Amino acid sequence: MRPRAAPRAAAALGFCSLLLLLGPGHACPAGCTCTDPHTVDCRDRGLPSVPDPFPLDVRKLLVAGNRIQHIPEDFFIFYGDLVYLDFRNNSLRSLEEGTFSGSAKLAFLDLSYNNLTQLGAGAFRSAGRLVRLSLANNNLAGVHEAAFETLESLQVLELNGNNLRSLSVAALAALPALRTLRLDGNPWLCDCDFAHLFSWIQENASKLPKGEPAGGQAGLGEGGREQGEATRSQEPLGRAPRVEPDGGGFGATALDECCSG
């Protein structure tokens, strides 16, 4: 009797067969448009899930303005050439560890205006080439200190307009290439953890420039979440870091009182 093929070998054979079947010129998903051989546009179609299949060599995928709640865990294994993913204005609730396995070329990821509440450790593992990541205007209340590990190329991180009351400095220290950081529009809690975050921003002011709306920003905003809601479509505020938790404003001079109180 011949030995049975290993499950992994069978899976690999099936995947290779699928590649041959679909080929790089496979047609667009129903209801979407392909403006060029590497771009698929499925925006504002009311889709409940990620349409499939795409051309295997798709590089730019636009699925903003739908009702998608989940990114298939094997999605990037099939579409490893993807560089640009616009996932704004959907109903995404969570990111499982391993979601981005196979996303070795992904550089731009926009997950703003979804329903994310937590970012766990290694949420973006395998997406090491990300340059820009927007998580703005979700419902994020917690970010694990290892959420951004391996993102050594990330230059722009947007966490504005969420429900963050604290953020570990370790999460940001794992981003050596970071140049633009948006934290405004969050209900920050006045405590020593916040003081550490504020100090880290001040210490890294040279690589996180502020003062020019068209440049980078390292600000905690002025006016809490309400202001963040009102300025979603505007350029980042070019002001020194400051926060007004629970309606009361304070700057660097109040950090000692914040910790001692």
Automatic annotation (TrEMBL):
<feature type="compositionally biased region" description="Gly residues">
    <location>
        <begin position="213"/>
        <end position="222"/>
    </location>
</feature>
<protein>
    <recommendedName>
        <fullName>LRRNT domain-containing protein</fullName>
    </recommendedName>
</protein>
<feature type="domain" description="LRRNT">
    <location>
        <begin position="27"/>
        <end position="60"/>
    </location>
</feature>
<dbReference type="GO" id="GO:0071805">
    <property type="term" value="P:potassium ion transmembrane transport"/>
</dbReference>
<dbReference type="InterPro" id="IPR003591">
    <property type="entry name" value="Leu-rich_rpt_typical-subtyp"/>
</dbReference>
<feature type="signal peptide">
    <location>
        <begin position="1"/>
        <end position="27"/>
    </location>
</feature>
<keyword id="KW-0406">Ion transport</keyword>
<keyword id="KW-0472">Membrane</keyword>
<keyword id="KW-0732">Signal</keyword>
<keyword id="KW-0677">Repeat</keyword>
<keyword id="KW-0407">Ion channel</keyword>
<dbReference type="Pfam" id="PF01462">
    <property type="entry name" value="LRRNT"/>
</dbReference>
<dbReference type="Pfam" id="PF13855">
    <property type="entry name" value="LRR_8"/>
</dbReference>
<keyword id="KW-0433">Leucine-rich repeat</keyword>
<dbReference type="InterPro" id="IPR032675">
    <property type="entry name" value="LRR_dom_sf"/>
</dbReference>
<keyword id="KW-0813">Transport</keyword>
<dbReference type="InterPro" id="IPR000372">
    <property type="entry name" value="LRRNT"/>
</dbReference>
<dbReference type="GO" id="GO:0005886">
    <property type="term" value="C:plasma membrane"/>
</dbReference>
<dbReference type="InterPro" id="IPR001611">
    <property type="entry name" value="Leu-rich_rpt"/>
</dbReference>
<keyword id="KW-1133">Transmembrane helix</keyword>
<dbReference type="InterPro" id="IPR050541">
    <property type="entry name" value="LRR_TM_domain-containing"/>
</dbReference>
<feature type="region of interest" description="Disordered">
    <location>
        <begin position="209"/>
        <end position="261"/>
    </location>
</feature>
<keyword id="KW-1003">Cell membrane</keyword>
<keyword id="KW-1015">Disulfide bond</keyword>
<keyword id="KW-0812">Transmembrane</keyword>
